[in-house]
Amino acid sequence: MTMTNLETSMATIIAVFQKYSEREGDKHKLKKSELKDLLHDELPDLMAHVKDQATLDSLMESLDTDGDAECDFQEFMTFISVVTVCCHEFFEHEDE
To answer: In what residue span(s) does the S100/CaBP-9k-type calcium binding subdomain domain sit (predicted)?
Structure first.
């Protein structure tokens, strides 16, 4: 059976998270270095607007809602959701 576009997108998000989270330590969480690699490799256009390390550190801190200095899948999905909503709003207003 062929997956729908949405199912494929969901599977891709999970696969990307796992690709980076499995590199070191807990395979269910992203360390700061893994998150940084993921963002640079998978969201290069977004990261082109991040000018300094302090901005990236601040992003990591805001994602880390449980304070364990790592980003679990739920925290990662919150970030992906917020970025997706922002992109949707941008393109929605671009048509006006």
So the answer is: 6-48
